[in-house]
Write a structure and sequence with these properties.
Oligomer: single chain
Shape: globular
Number of strands: 44
Structural class: mainly beta
CATH topology of the largest domain: Neuraminidase
Helix content: under 10%
CATH class of the largest domain: Mainly Beta
Number of domains: 3
Distance between the termini: 78 Å
Radius of gyration: 26 Å
CATH architecture of the largest domain: 6 Propeller
């Protein structure tokens, strides 16, 4: 009898244990720890640049014109901050080489040294100067050294209702020789806050959505390239310009066609290596670093990590060369940084230091500034590791073996293709969004890869690859279940000959047909009344609302009577896209969070989520446009909120409409 009880108990425990191991849900924090470097109260560390010194100290430059040297930044004691340099002008880049710091100020690339070895800078040597018009938007970034000891700097365009290169070489990538000689390399840059010289000495830069830029992206730049924004073309008539393209030349392609179609007519136009779909991946792509840690940061050696300032997170990017051109995929990686993530640098131990600032540049991380370190704990995450383009589809590789039955099921995979408009207007909606038909699936013998054979491929398009219900052989769920591959070139090769077992039959693949998945024009909401109702003679209250720099409305408080007829006039005179969403009292955070999760359909829905907390709203307005909406004020008195729900803006861009009896 006791033996029977023992056996039954053992079987029960085994069953419970097996059940408990099913579908183990992973989180980013299970694999990477985010550690905060404590900053003294008297240090305003609005990080613009980071440099890692050979002795383990970390240097950080700030938007306030200072350079701080930090001891014990790795958590091996209380961090100690020493102000090394001050009196500089908005230092948005920092490098350390051969005992000296190099930083890019607004109008100057400067070498800074401590010649008497007292720990404080005593030598400031201008290497080269950059022309300024005085416009607030003329930021300067870098330097980044290449293998030859030359330096690269990027210069922002000015903003005058659109991006324009008012100062000489603004909107350009510039190579600077040690003697200060400037060599213009490429133009078409709008807001190039992050760039990298990789292990092959190739230059990549990250771009933000804006005029001529449909979404965030990373582009490989070579001499004579034009990356797309027209502002820098002001300087192509200079004798040392490597290209002669003019703004006039762009008129024939400024019609909303996809960028890859425009590139067929404008030979200098360089397509992005990787698009980062706006709001789905991030909203303000920033710094780029290449993983050369030899496994100290996880299983992604040779890939890249890309910061996003607005979403306070790091994304991952893999690249390959097809027909001599770079292309690849982006993946979610880690979110939840304390502030707007601008700078990334590798620590000596293979961790990532992230430097942050959010003043005037809103971010999901609420802190005004921060310095944090991301550390791998040695555990292997179950992820899509890499994606490779094939002649007739994509090969998806995973970090660990996948349950074979799940890997063979076509219902677990979908592929969508879409693109953006190339136009002078700010940003672009997603266009030509279609589901691709998967006609075959070929898993690898080791369960780490699967080839998705499609009925066709579209060069120039972004391909969303989504995976559902996969689990590893260790019964873990996938950490992130989507990625975006930018297909500039289709690899050469024979089409795959599928066996009967590899074919996706018509029934299993019904949801993979080639129909459009969404309309491309904005959806009109009943909560957005843009003409005065027929039964009104006139509004009883007119509210005028505009914008001002720093993600702010120009009015923070209104007062209206309960039940009154209201006209709200919203003038978007900012350089970014905004809307106005009126919510129930206290609901701005909830509505803003829902807008962040709207994915590819967000722009066509004006980033207004379906929620009973949303009462009224405008459309999503481009810069220098306006719209009126009409509504009847709530009958219940209270403090209702208005907020911009464009992803990343809701945290700071808001106000109150006080409804009184």
């Amino acid at each position: 009898m006791l033996n029977k009880i023992y056996i039954c108990t053992l079987l029960l425990l085994l069953t419970v244990s097996t059940f408990a191991q099913k579908n183990v849900v992973q989180s980013e924090k299970d694999f990477y720890a985010l550690k905060t470097v404590a900053i003294p109260d008297n240090v305003k560390l609005e990080v613009g640049g980071i440099a890692v010194m050979p002795d383990g100290r970390i240097a950080a430059s700030t938007r306030r014109g200072e350079i701080w040297i930090i001891q014990n930044a790795y958590g091996n004691g209380q961090p100690h901050f020493t102000r090394f340099a001050s009196g500089l002008h908005e230092v948005l880049g920092l490098a350390y080489r051969d005992g000296a710091f190099y930083c890019t100020q607004r109008g100057e690339l400067t070498k800074i040294e401590d010649k008497n070895n007292d720990g404080i800078a005593d030598s400031y040597t201008p290497i080269t100067l950059f022309e300024l018009s005085g416009n607030y938007h003329e930021y300067a970034y870098g330097p980044v050294f290449d293998k030859n000891g030359d330096m690269y700097v990027t210069l922002n365009v000015a903003w005058v209702g659109y991006g324009d290169g008012l100062g000489k070489w603004h909107g350009w990538l510039i190579k600077v020789k040690p003697d200060g000689t400037q060599e213009p390399i490429a133009t078409g840059l709008r807001s190039p806050a992050g760039f990298n010289v990789n292990s092959n000495n190739d230059v990549f830069y990250a771009e933000n959505q804006g005029d001529w830029v449909g979404s965030g992206r990373v582009t490989h730049l070579e001499k004579g390239d034009f990356a797309g924004n027209a502002g820098g073309l002001n300087w192509t008539k200079e004798p040392n310009s490597p290209l002669k393209l003019t703004k006039e030349d762009l008129k024939e392609v400024d019609n909303g066609q996809p960028m890859h179609e425009a590139a067929k007519k404008i030979k200098e136009l360089k397509l992005p290596a990787v698009w980062f779909p706006h709001t789905v991946m991030g909203i303000s792509t920033a710094d780029i670093i290449e993983d050369q840690t030899n496994g100290a940061f996880g299983p992604f050696g040779g890939q890249y990590f890309v910061a996003d300032q607005g979403h306070s997170k790091i994304m991952r990017m893999s690249l390959e060369k097809v027909n001599g051109k770079y292309q690849g995929a982006c993946y979610p990686f880690y979110e939840g940084f304390a502030s707007g993530l601008v700078r990334l640098r590798w620590g000596l131990d293979g961790s990532i230091f992230g430097g942050m600032t959010s003043r005037g540049w809103a971010s999901t991380g609420k802190a005004e500034y921060a310095l944090q370190r991301l550390v791998w704990n040695g555990e292997l995450p179950f992820e899509m590791k890499d994606i490779h383009a094939m002649s007739d589809g994509f090969e998806v590789e995973f970090t660990t073996p996948v349950n074979s039955s799940k890997l063979k099921d076509p219902k677990n995979f979908t592929v969508n293709s879409f693109t953006y408009k190339y136009q002078h207007q700010y940003g672009s909606p997603i266009t030509n969004n279609r589901t691709r038909k998967i006609i075959g699936m070929i898993p690898s013998a080791d369960g780490r890869k699967v080839k998705l054979v499609l009925d066709s491929l579209i060069p120039g398009y972004i391909h969303e690859i989504r995976v559902a219900n996969l689990e590893s052989t260790e019964q873990k769920s996938l950490l992130h279940d989507f990625a975006y591959y930018t297909l500039n070139e289709i690899p050469a090769g024979e089409k795959t000959v599928l066996t009967e077992g590899e074919k996706v039959n018509a029934h299993a693949g019904m949801h993979h047909d080639m129909k459009k998945t969404a309309p491309t024009k904005p959806v009109v909401s009943k909560k957005r009344q843009t003409t005065m109702p027929a039964d009104w003679t006139q509004p009883e209250k007119i509210l005028k609302l505009g914008t001002k720099p720093g993600l702010k409305y120009d009015v923070s408080n209104f007062e209206v009577k309960a039940g009154s007829k209201v006209r709200l006039i919203f003038n978007n005179n900012d350089d970014m896209t905004h809307n106005v969403v009126i919510t129930a009292p206290g609901a701005a955070d909830e509505v803003g969070s829902l807008a962040l999760k709207m994915g590819l359909k967000g722009s066509e829905m004006n980033y207004v989520p379906s929620s009973n907390k949303v009462l009224f709203h405008t459309g999503l307005l481009q810069p220098e446009t306006s719209e009126s909406i009409y509504f009847v004020a709530p009958s219940t008195p209270g403090e209702y909120m208005f907020v911009c729900t464009f992803p990343g803006h809701a945290a700071v861009m808001r106000g109150i409409i006080k409804v009184v009896p």
